[in-house]
Design brief:
By secondary structure, the chain is an alpha/beta fold. It has 2 domains: 164 residues, P-loop containing nucleotide triphosphate hydrolases (Rossmann fold, 3-Layer(aba) Sandwich); 96 residues. It is built from 14 helices and 9 strands. It is elongated.
Amino acid sequence: MDYSVKTDSVNRFTGSDDYVVSDELMYATNIAIALQKPLLLKGEPGTGKTMLAHAIAKSTGKKLYVWSVKSTTKASEGLYIYDTVQRLYDSQFGEGDVGDIRKYIKLGRLGETFLSDEQVILLIDEIDKADLEFPNDLLWELDQMEYYIPETKETVKAKHRPIVVITSNAEKELPDAFLRRCIFHYIEFPSPEIMTDIVAVHFPDLEEKLLRSAMERFYWIRSLKDIQKKPSTSELLDWLQALVISGISVEKLKTEIPYMGVLLKKNQDIAELFRAKEIESRRFDVRR
């Protein structure tokens, strides 16, 4: 069924040369743009949540602003910071006119998007890293596209509503009031078919037999139930590059998993892989 959304040709997103997008994600992105609502993305690491904003910027020719959220980040910092330390320093050493408070207002990434003369893309990356009040503190600004600066008694209104992409790794549950204001999409881990298309973007000349064998191994590892950190798309691409550089043969991939440290990053996962391979080897010997 066709769920395509009527957006202007400048803002319509269909993917980019280096970002393979599913139909569902494309529809969610375009409906968020059309309704002028933030697009909230969840999904396990390596599913392309962060890179979607870069792809939208590239596809539409718009500038990208990235606000990387940390555990200590406050919502107000995305709007502006009043640099009281610098003002105190200037007052003590006679540097400039300390009466002009505007000189000490430093815009954050969200604040910068409000003053842009053209519509831009804003990526609020890993919003769930901040405290629970962080999303609620942004509700008014993202809804009304304005904020108040008490120090200068000014209300700043956005010249253009930015296209907002928000990512979450589901470390914390986001407030219902915040969720109601977003278009939500969960990015499933790519199927082997879609993953093949993604790999083709990065390795267009990769030998087909090597790709097939590597993909079989990759998805077999991801299927192991006791693997704590499953390898992601970026790790698959790094692994493929390692296989190509070293000249590993297809036959070797049938019995070994070289450079497993490129795919797995935990000791217990590597131990689990060895255990699974031992079981696999015994089954192979029995079949013989």
